[in-house]
Here is the input.
Amino acid sequence: MPDVIALLPDHVANQIAAGEVVQRPASVVKELLENAIDAQASTIQLIIHDAGKQRIQVVDNGVGMSPTDARLAFERHATSKIKQADDLFALHTKGFRGEALASIAAVAQVELQTKRVDDELATKIDMAASEIADQSFVVGPDGTSMVVTNLFYNVPARRNFLKSNTVEMRHIIDEFHRVALAHPSIGFQLIQGKTELFDLPSATLKRRILHIFGSKLEDKLVPVDEETPVANIRGFVLKPEAARRTRGMQFFFVNDRFVKSSFMHHAIKTAFDGLLVDGSHPGYFLAIDLDPQTIDINIHPTKTEVKFENEQSLFAILRSTIKHSLGIFQVAPTLDFEHNPNLDVPYAQNDQVVNRPQIDVDRNFNPFKDTAIPSGGRTNSAQWEALYQEVGSTASDAPELFNGTEELPTATEAKMFQIMQRYIVSATGNALLLIDQERAHQRVLYESFLANITHSNAASQQLLFPLTLSLTAMQKANFATYLPFLKEVGFDFGGSLSEDSIPDDVSIIGVPSQCDQSKAIHVFEDLFLTLESDQITEAFSPSDLLAKSLCRSLSIKSGQSLQDPEQAALVNNLFACKDTLVSPFNRKIFVSLTKEELQKKFS
Ligand code: ADP
Ligand code: MG
Here is the structure.
């Protein structure tokens, strides 16, 4: 038998390594941003085309590279950051494995231009298929620019595996947030095509958070600051009232590196015990600094996981520090010496009376008369007819509802009442129905918004006093994308807005008929949150996403008690929907118990 083992050629080894380091455009973004930080840049620019699938560029004003280093940088295990294994435990840089650039060059074309302060000319290198295709001297600025194009051009399986641009862009922005929050003193810019999404000046952590997530967070941040022999902890947690149902704002940094640690997340969560409503997640921006000797970050190629030597004591410290901060905050308002009035957003709506949301009743709807169904509507589902067949016969002489002037939505004679402030119980001749009020109303609103968009027939209510919506750069970009759909569901805005000129403050002058004006700002906050979180993957299209976000924000909630007419209207509107079985989020809307099933229970 001949020997069979052979060493893999470099370009093959690099491609295999790339599989671990480069999973998607966002991984390239992370590695390039980290290299720029390691090069001591004070400003870093990230420019993205086609969600990074086509082009990713990072420009920094850091130390640059010599012509020889520029060539070496693309070799595997080529790093300037460690010389021996021991150095791993005294690390103060992001990188050290020396494989990022080699990996990226194995799966994309790379163009590097770099210059040190003392050099006359910049070095330019073109990499193709892991080889140097061209090297020259050019005139250029100090620092380094890396351009990565056609990611995965030679790995079709990977390329096909990439998600939609929205999803890939979401990952890039997440990565950008993490790096920018870990390094508030460095200026960052993110440009998507021709749109500037973020321009973050050098700032304190607090200012950085507000620049990214909006100044309305200002009075929601509780400072955390603790020095112990094991670790120093600083940063902010969000007040419990600001906790959200999405996990959007959870940032944990160890020695200026974003890391995922379910153990530490748990420590933070337990500090909030008893303070959060079920299903909501605490928000936090916490940086812990400790001796690099006491952690191991080299357990994963992308270095987002970490092993702590003093795990148990860190858990306890973290938990008690946060509890302490939350405690202080509850007795006294937080003292804030860096308050900058320029970042304050006037919220003119604070003093307005919050009205109870009205149920949108389709007064023409009669499930037993096809002719009474408005255009675009549909006959109701068979199960409704079956369940209410007895009621149908009496529907015409129904009692009066609402102002006493309108005709009663039919089938309300079926007796109904609310239990547990959550379910509507309806008894008919044939069965017992338990309807989840929140999910039912979500379904009703969702279909009405979708119909508004499809038929462009939304009814808008003009506001006597316009509302002001203040937007961050990121929100402006999302707002621009959704502007046509927002108008279609019935929002109306002041000034001449177009998709490429959105001001910082948008004036809302009309809202959809389904939306109470006191809820309008809240609706936008929810929408932006949805767009900035991973939930976006659930929706098929922008209009679907908008309808889902709106119905979730505006629906009647569990725990809300409903008057009889409201219950009746809700049930009627539900059974006029195209789909009555599940909510827009695929949750069961009602359960029924037939006569037979009941009898069985009594046998
Ligand atoms: P690592 O960061 O693990 O050292 P990389 O493959 O990311 O490995 O980079 C290899 C080397 O190239 C770095 O150690 C550094 O010396 C150099 N380098 C990469 N990017 C830059 C940059 N933006 N500015 C200066 N030097 C850089
Ligand atoms: Mg690196």
User: Anything to note?
Assistant: The radius of gyration is 29 Å. The longest strand covers residues 460-470. The CA atoms of residues 375 and 383 lie 22 Å apart.
